[in-house]
Structures are given as C-alpha cells and as structure tokens.
Design brief:
Number of domains of chain B: 2
Radius of gyration of chain A: 21 Å
Order of helices and strands of chain B: EEEHEEHEHHHEHEHEEHEHEEHEHH
Radius of gyration of chain B: 23 Å
Strand content of chain B: 25-35%
Oligomer: heterotrimer
Helix content of chain B: 25-40%
Strand order of the largest sheet of chain B: 6-7-8-3-9-10
CATH class of the largest domain in chain B: Alpha Beta
Number of strands of chain B: 14
Chains: A mainly alpha, B alpha/beta, C mainly alpha
CATH architecture of the largest domain in chain B: 3-Layer(aba) Sandwich
Largest sheet of chain B: 6 strands, mixed
Number of strands of chain A: 0
Structural class of chain B: alpha/beta
Number of domains of chain A: 1
Chain lengths: 284, 338, 312
C-alpha cells in the first residue's frame, strides 16, 4: 500500500463549546436518520398514544366533568410526550448504549456526557414534537377544546423553562443509569404512572393535598403544566396551585438546580462507575 | 531520548463478584491484575500476550480510563488515569475485537463520521480520512452500506478504522484480529505497521493471545498470566532464553495416563506441556540437552504410546510461555473452559 | 480411529424424491415440542421478570405501579364526583382498570419478548434454529407477565376494597364464572399478544412498546373505564368487535353483579351468551394471530430480520 495523507497528517480538532456542539449534533444524527429510515414510529408514537388521551377524555365525559377538564387531558397527553422522551430516549438509553458497547466509547472520548445526552434528547425531539402537536391539534379538534391564551410571552417562558429544567433533570437521572444494568429498564417503567399521578398530567395539581403537590413541584412538568393551564384555559386561574409568577420563578430555580446538578452528578457517577467497573459490565 | 507513553506502577485490580441467589450474599474476589509494572516508550508497538482471563483487557480498560485500579498508579501520555482522565481522552483511542458498537441503521461512513465528531474533527476532514482509511483496509466499496448489513469481519474492519480515524497519540488494540480470517488479519497487521512507521511519535499497545501476531508485530512483548507480568522484553530476547535449550514438538497417540509431571521428572527435561488432540496428544518439550530425548522416547515406548509426528524447532513465544507458566496457552484456555 | 457415535434415538433417513413420505412430525412429537417450548419459555420469562432486583424493590415496584395507575382514575373521579364513591360508575371504572392490567401485561409480555430476545439478549436466532415452536415459546414468555400482572391486579383490588370501599363481597361472587372468564380471557389476551409479537418481528427497537401502545389505544374500545355508550355511535361497533369488552363485562358480572346491571350496554346478553361471544371472538383473533405470525415470520426471514439489531 502507498503511504497516504491520512497516515501522515495530524487533523485539527476543536475543543470547548465547539466540541460540545459537534457532539450534540453527532449524537442526534443516528436518531434523526433512524426515524427517517424506519417510519413505523409515526403510527406507534403518534396515533396510538392519541388513543390513550381519548380514553381519559371519555372517562371525564362519562363522569360528567366540566368541558375544560377535557382540555386538561389533551394538554397532559401532549406533555407526556416530553416526559417519555426524557425517560426512554435519554435516561435509560444509557443502559442500551452500555449493552452495545457504545457507552465505553462515549466515556473514553474527550466530549461531554451532557452533550451526548442532549444529542439523544434532541434527536428524539422531532418525534416528540410531532406527537405533542398531533395530540393537541387532533384532540382539540375532536373534542372542541376552547383555549384563551392570556399572555403568550409568559406561556413561551413557562414552556421553555419547564423543558430546560426537565431535560436537566433527565440528565441527572441518566447519571444514575451509568451504574445500573437491567434494573434501569424497570425503574424507568416505574417512573411513568406515579409521575403522571403526582405531577397532575390529567387533573389540576391543586386537587391533591398541599404537601403532596408541593413535593411534586420538584418535577418541572408539575408547575410547568399548572402555569400553562392558567395561561391557556379560560377558567385556568381558578384551578392554579400557585400564581404564574411564582411558578416561573420556581422553574427558573429548578433550571439552574438541575443543569448544575446534572453536570456534578454526571461527573460523580462516572467516577463511581469507573471505580466499580460498571461502565463495561453486561449484567443482563 | 524517547519519552514514556504508558507507565504503570504496582498496578492492581480486584473485582468483587456477587454470588447467585443460591449463594446469597457470598462475595468472591477476583484478582484480575497484581503488581503490574510497565514502561512503554513513545513510538513502541508493545504487545501484551496471555491466555483468556489473564488480565489483558482489564489492563487496557484501566489505561483508557474506563476502569479505576484498586491499587497502584498508571499514566498515559504523562497524565494519571484516575486524576486526569479528561486530559488523556483526547490523545487516545481503542478498538476491541468482536465489537458490536455503532448503530446498525447508519452506514459505515455515518458511523465513522459520528465518532469522529466526538473527537472534534471537522466534517470535511473526517470524511476525507474515512474514505482514505477505508481504502487502505479494503472496504471503501462498502462505505454507504448500513453497518447492520456487514459481515463480522467487515464490521471489525470498520471498527479498526474508527480507532485510527481520530489520529490518537496512543492507540489501544484489544485483540483486534479476533474473528477475522487469515487474509483480513494480515491486512490489519500490515496496516498497523504502516500507521506506526508514518509517525514514530505514535504508540500502540496491542493485546493478543495469538503468539504469531505478537512475534511478527511487536517491538516488545509482556507475557501476562493470572494478572501478573511474567516477562517483558523483545520477542527475540525472550526466545534467546531458550536458545540453548532443545525444543521438540511430538504428536502422539493417546497418552494412556502419562502426565507432564512424569516427563518433567526426567533429568534434562526442563519443561513438558501436554495438550490433548483428536488423534491423541501433543507434547511440547524443552530439553536442556538433545540427548534427553532418548529418555522421553523410552517412556513413551513403555506406555505403548506411538509417535505420529516429530519435529525439532526454533523457540517461539509459545515455548517461552510454556517455560514461564508450565503449560501451553491452549491447555490453559481449555482448562478455563472446563 | 473410532467412528462417531450416533445418537441412539435418531435415525438418519435419506429421502430420494417422490417415493419418500412426508416428513411431518407425529402428533405426540408435536405436543412434546410445544410443551417443552412453553415450559422452558415460562421458566425463562419468570427468571427475567423476577430477578432484576432484590425482593423488597420488586415488591415496591409491584405495588406502586398498579396503585398509581388506579389512583390517577380515582383522583379524576374524585374531583368531579366530589368524593362520592358509592355511585356504581366508580366500581365499574375501578374494576375495569384493575383487570385491564392483564391486557397491557400480556400484550406487552409477548411482543416485548421478541425485541428483548432479538436485540438485547441476542438469543432469538438460537431459539429459531432450536427444535421448539416459536409461537408457543413467545406465549410462554408472556405467561411470566401474566403472573406479575396477577400481583398487580390483586393489589389494585385489595387497595380498592380496603381504602375506597369497593363493594366487593367474596361470598357473593360467582367464582365459577370468574375463573372460567379469566381462563378464556388470558388465552385471548395471549393470542392478541402473539399478533403484536408477530408484527414486532418486522419492527425496530424503539417501537418495542407496541404492546403498551396498543393496550393504551384499546382502552377506548374495551369498555374498561367507561361504558361503550359514551363512545360516538359510529365507533361503538369497534368496541363490540373486541373480545376484551365481553371479557371485562363477564369479570364485572362475576365479581360485582349489580354494577354491571347498572349499565345497559350489554345487559341484553346472558352470561352464557357473553361467554359464547367471548369464545367465538377469541377463536377468531387466535386464527388471525396465527396467520399473522406465519406471514410476519416468513417476511422476517426473507428480510434477514431475525438477528438484526436496530437500537439508536
């Protein structure tokens, strides 16, 4: 074989935020491409979850609930898409990566695990957004949900902060999955119904005892959805847990808490996993 | 004077193994590495040779910052593997044999591009290097094939390119030719040599249990068994230990109860290793003097063991291993399987 | 040199063409293979479902998950009905939700087994080349989920009885009807699971939740948490075509007779008629799932999907 430039040259490599960005894009890529090459998710990730939302709407209709409760279910159903993205496409995804041998390669490379996780989440975002939008549009059309947005800027702020805090929380929990093996899947499974209950996906959180609602507020979607309900539905202000202003403040604090916590916990868990030899084990 | 690329001081690693439900909470400890002291210079192609379960992969995992040692220290490119992993990672890469990493739905190019991004290469540079390296290993015609459609051997070649793509200062290859056919293995070995010769500041640590591979490729070899380094030197120097000895390989009919210990009890027989074969057995003998062969043949006759094949040969690394451990690598791996 | 020892129980026959008879297995061998497949798959499924955590964590998981699912409906109901749990609609919703756990568990259990074995344990290819019956194997893998599902169902009902005054009288229940309905229902759900499992052969890893997703969608059409009368008229036929609808009705009638009578949807049918419809629809779905399996199995082998990994 003749000598080649690839053997002789030393390619330039970026570091810092540029490397962070490259990693995010690179890790999002398999997911985006995968969804284009295998389109079955459109049915299973959009049409079928709509069925679950319709079921809860019809429960409310069967028990004679006021019309705005239908809207709550539609909104809650849409927001579950983001929770599922965090849970399955980010947190517990590390378990699958470990099984395939990719986790070791990620840890060994000079990028940031936060960038890898963010890439995973963003890669699934297309499907997530489609699911959320489809549920809102179709659910609203089917059940003639009435909206009355009182402050669009506040609504945007609430949604953005809730998402940032949620994904920060997802990164924190993902760090736990560095240590786990098969139990990761089961724990993710466990974090569905209890979270739906505690965060009030389908009903106003004010209906729960105060301390339960307050405790559940640590999950960004709790106050995020509560604030959005107040800003979007005509009678929303009656069923709010805290005022929108307070909830925005708490969401900002949660953003900082979870994003900083994610960085610290990911670093700590990585060291722990390296010490205990968990990064490359395959305990199926 | 070349600087030290990889250094270990009294490196040790103990695994705690959980028992099954029946064993309840019994925890056993497995000593994977013990008191490993190595210094690998920049520019070396260093081999780590040993049977399955010797500790080769454990050592590599520690050096690539995936596993922390339980005792001792290790440094790569001058940085400590425990304290400064972030400073080591931009400078290294690793390829394991039998890897299933990557994403099946992505093409060869896409998988390699993705991993290149994790090291900060520009897309343009990455794609150029991908094409060149794939040409060198002979699979550029599969550049747009989904990796799930590749055979095991081609997939391993893709993984090998992944390791070289990011131009590491130190590259770790953990049994890279595992699962490859003879031709592919030869291609990979040739490629490894080319890569090192192109820039002598690069260092490569190769683990293998194929003696021929270590002999052919490595500047120096460390023989490791049960977590300990038994010898470390150039292959030629290691073999010279046995140069004065006479080395014979004898294939026989079934041994009728004859043991290696019985042969070793003969004067002038330094080491004897027995491996069972389909036809009977293979004896690897290291004799102090050729004349000792007569006594060996005598014993075989007494036990009605027929000699099927007989040859005298130059010492190989396999013989060095037998000399150090007392059994052949094949025999050790068979025993471990049982 | 010794010749290779032949297995004493196997004869090697050389078929030369038209003169040779068909090589189909005898019925006894068929049953033996099916039983072996089912037995081993059940054992394997239980091992996988039960040994991922210590018993305490397993118990927590088995209690919290079903109770949370029920609690969502309880809270929704409680807000609107202002705590009036004596209305017959409450036990209707509660019991329907409790037993619907089986639907999710069985459908997911079978379909997920395909993805799990193919992508994670990478053993599906070995199961395929072994002398076992793959559909029976998949059904066996689903049985473990039936067992864990039973824990969830019992805990949910107990929770309802103890904390929400669910009007369930052990002495008044029609246990014969209950166990018969349960038995038929489990087979019916297993066949639906096989249908989804067959489709899973052709799908990628990230739609491995097809079981959960379909169960969630069928929630609407099964009368699990609201009577079918709530559905628009043009959608009700779908519910009437679902065997789960009749199964849940029979379960309710057997456990809390007066609840089912409060809703007119199926009140025109006797228990015997409902059983007949359930058996008929179950057989129909069973036939569909067997045909679907054969089709999907052939397609998967044509496309080389039996051993592919698709996780990204």
């Amino acid at each position: 074989m003749n000598s080649s430039t690839s053997l002789n040259e030393h390619p330039a490599k970026v570091t810092g935020w540029q490397l962070f960005l490259k990693t995010v894009i690179a890790r999002a890529y398999p997911r985006i491409i995968g969804q284009q090459r295998e389109k079955s998710w459109m049915f299973f990730d959009i049409v079928l979850p709509l069925g679950g939302v319709i079921a809860y709407v019809l429960v409310y209709k069967a028990i004679g609930a006021p019309a705005e409760y239908v809207g709550f279910v539609v909104m809650g159903g849409a927001m579950t898409a983001f929770w599922m993205n965090v849970l399955w496409s980010m947190s517990s995804q590390l378990y699958w990566e470990k099984e395939q041998g990719n986790l070791a390669l990620y840890i060994m490379s000079p990028n940031s695990m936060m960038a890898v996780l963010l890439g995973m989440a963003l890669g699934g975002m297309v499907a997530t957004l489609l699911r959320a939008v489809a549920i809102v549009l179709l659910g609203s059309l089917m059940f003639q949900v009435q909206y009355a947005v009182t402050n669009f800027l506040q609504l945007l702020a609430v949604f953005t902060l809730a998402m940032a805090a949620l994904y920060g929380m997802g990164m924190m929990t993902a760090s736990l999955f560095l240590l786990l093996s098969r139990e990761a899947w089961h724990l993710s499974n466990l974090a569905q119904e209890p979270i739906y209950l505690a965060t009030g996906f389908y009903f106003p959180i004010k209906s729960l005892p105060f301390w339960v609602a307050l405790g559940a507020s640590i999950i960004p979607l709790t106050l995020g959805m509560d604030a959005m309900r107040q800003l979007v539905f005509p009678s929303g202000f009656k069923i709010g847990f805290l005022s929108v202003g307070v909830e925005i403040g708490v969401l900002m604090a949660l953003c900082v808490l979870f994003l900083v916590g994610a960085k610290l916990l990911l670093g700590h868990m990585e060291k722990l996993a390296i010490r205990e030899g968990r990064l490359t084990e395959s305990r199926r | 004077m070349a600087s030290i690329a990889i250094e270990t001081e009294n490196l040790g690693r103990i695994y705690k193994i959980r028992g099954s439900k029946k064993e309840k909470k019994i925890r056993k400890e497995l000593v994977a590495l013990a008191d490993v002291n190595l210094q690998i210079e920049q520019g070396e192609l260093f081999g780590l040779l040993g049977p399955n379960g010797a500790g080769k992969t454990t050592l590599i995992k520690i050096l690539v910052t995936l596993l922390a040692p339980t005792s001792g220290r290790a440094r790569v490119s001058g940085f400590d593997v425990v304290d400064d992993p972030q400073l080591i990672r931009p400078r290294i890469n690793m390829v394991s044999g039998g890897e299933s990493s990557g994403y099946g739905l992505l093409t060869v190019r896409e998988n390699l591009w993705m991993f290149a991004q994790f090291y900060g290469l520009s897309s343009k540079e990455a794609n150029r290097r991908i094409e060149e390296l794939l040409t060198m290993v002979g699979i550029v015609d599969r550049i747009h094939t989904k990796s799930s459609d590749l055979s095991t051997g081609l997939r391993q070649k893709m993984n090998i390119v992944r390791g070289f793509l990011t131009d590491p200062e130190v590259l770790f290859l953990d049994e890279p030719t595992l699962g490859l056919d003879v031709g592919a293995s030869r291609d990979v070995r040739r490629f490894i040599r080319q890569w090192l010769e192109a820039d002598r500041s690069r260092t490569l640590l190769l683990t293998t249990h194929y003696m021929v591979e270590a002999d052919e490729l490595c500047d120096r070899v460390a023989i490791i068994n049960q977590g300990r380094v038994l010898a470390c030197d150039k292959p030629s120097t290691l073999k010279q230990r046995l140069q004065r000895d006479a080395i014979f390989g004898i294939e026989t009919s079934p041994l009728n109860g004859l043991s290696a210990a019985a042969l070793e009890s003969l004067p002038e027989v330094r080491k004897a290793a027995l491996t069972e074969t389909e036809a009977g057995a293979k004896l690897d003998l290291i004799l102090v003097e050729e004349a000792a062969l007569a006594a060996v043949i005598n014993i075989l006759n007494q036990k009605n063991i027929r000699i099927l094949k007989f040859n005298k040969r130059e010492p190989t690394l396999e013989d060095v291993f037998v000399d150090l451990v007392g059994r052949s690598m094949e025999e050790m791996e068979k025993t471990e399987d049982e | 040199m010794t010749t290779a020892t032949r297995h004493p129980s196997r004869k090697l026959t050389c078929s030369s063409g038209s003169g040779a008879g068909k090589a189909g297995p005898a019925l006894a061998t068929l049953f033996a293979e099916a039983w072996r497949s089912f037995r081993l798959a059940t054992w394997l499924g239980w091992q996988i479902e039960s040994n991922w955590a210590d018993p305490f964590l397993f118990a927590i998981y088995s209690i919290i998950k079903p109770l949370s699912g029920a609690a969502i409906l309880v809270v929704m109901y409680g807000i609107i009905a202002k705590g009036n749990f004596t209305n017959p609609l409450f036990p209707y919703i509660y019991l329907g939700n409790a037993f619907y756990i089986y639907a999710g568990a069985m459908m997911t259990g079978v379909s997920w087994a395909v993805i799990d074995d193919r992508e994670h344990y990478k053993t599906l290819k070995y199961m395929y080349i072994a002398p076992i019956r793959i559909p029976v194997y998949l059904l066996g893998r689903g049985v473990a989920r039936f067992i864990t599902g039973s824990f969830s169902v019992i805990i949910t009902i107990l929770g309802g009885v103890l904390f929400l005054h669910l009007p369930f009288d052990v002495t008044a229940a029609n246990w014969l009807l209950f166990f018969l309905s349960l038995f038929i229902g489990v087979i019916m759900l297993a066949m639906m699971g096989l249908l989804l499992g067959s489709i899973s052969l052709l799908l990628v890893h990230h739609v491995g939740f097809i079981g959960d997703a379909v169960a969630g969608a069928l929630y609407i059409f099964s009368g699990a948490i609201f009577p079918l009368d709530v559905l628009p008229a043009w959608l009700r036929p779908i519910g009437f075509a679902m065997p789960i609808t009749y199964w849940l009705e029979l379960i309710r009638r057997s456990l809390i007779g007066e609840v089912a009578q409060a809703f007119p949807t199926l009140s025109g049918f006797s228990n015997g008629q409902l059983l007949g419809i359930l058996v008929g629809l179950s057989l129909a779905f069973g036939a569909v799932s067997i045909v679907a399996f054969r089709f999907c199995d052939r397609r998967a082998r044509e496309r080389g999907l039996i051993d592919r990994t698709s996780n990204y």
